[in-house]
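pinned: reference chain
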Amino acid sequence: MRLIIREDPKAVAYYTANYVRQRINEFKPTRKRPFVMGLPTGSTPVEVYWHLVDFYKQGILSFKNVITFSMDEYVGLPRSHPESYCSFMHRHLYDHIDLKPENIYMLDGNAEDLAAECQRYEECIKDVGGIELFLGGIGPDGHIAFNEPGSSLESVTRVKTLAYETVLANARFFGGDVNKVPKLALTVGVGTVRAAREVLLIITGAHKAVALAKCIEEGVNHMWTVSVVQLHPSAMVVCDEDATLELHVKTVRYFKSIEQVQEQLIGRQNIGLKGSISKLSGANANHQPDAPQPEAGKQISDDESSSDESSAEDTKITSTVAPPASSRSDAHGVRSNGALTSAATAGNPF
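pinned: its structure tokens
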């Protein structure tokens, strides 16, 4: 498992979005060989989606041959409801990119037979060849999607009763009224996530520090479903400094040193996008210094962008969506000058 540590949530969001961009472009998806993604909802990925939209607008990313599967959906909430996850994904991503409607898969929380709907979803994933990259966030108790503590690590898409803490946490999206928050949800299972060929988790904030520590430093435990990524052959966690507060100092230093060795001693040109060492030619003594980066505000063309970038700082792309580094943001990625609004209250930020 790879642990990538960045300074703050904004740097995490950019790194993650840029990684997704590179993965899709490196994959070179076609109609017959699409790039299949699992996508999360919630506050954490919002700014990642804004960056992806910006990459599309710049012409350096296309979703034309991408298929998406949403992680979850409330039961009994109309799809048109502003807080449904269907509305969420359209508001923050789908309505602003060239993703084909027929390539968007979502769970139907209003299906007559919920169990059959969950089975249909699993079959749809198999029909498209499985998920290439599962992007996810976690809750403070370490749950992935709605796979809360106690969930089976072999579980597949199913109906889940939400824990009271989750209902309380989501009440902020429903005017603070817990009675308006749905108590049931459809969710992909832990096993569904594990079946993806790659898993990328975003973990930010001191309130998720314990969950990250459980994920990185302790054993696999169904009470912390995020810990299952330890068993995955291709998993990466991108976190900010605040999320590392519960990790041992030696753990943080270890993962930072791995990235430092790859960057400075082995060389980016020898490292594959997923962190594997693809070659050793030019390493160490023959390693050339990095090429100078473009000035701030200069847009990078397709020819100039590199497919083996490995950090958010490697490429500076002008973003009309992401706020400048000097902007302050709260836990939901809100820009202090009010230009961008939160996931809970946002209309169309574009």
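why pinned: The chain is about 25% helix and 15% strand. The CA atoms of residues 209 and 244 lie 6 Å apart.
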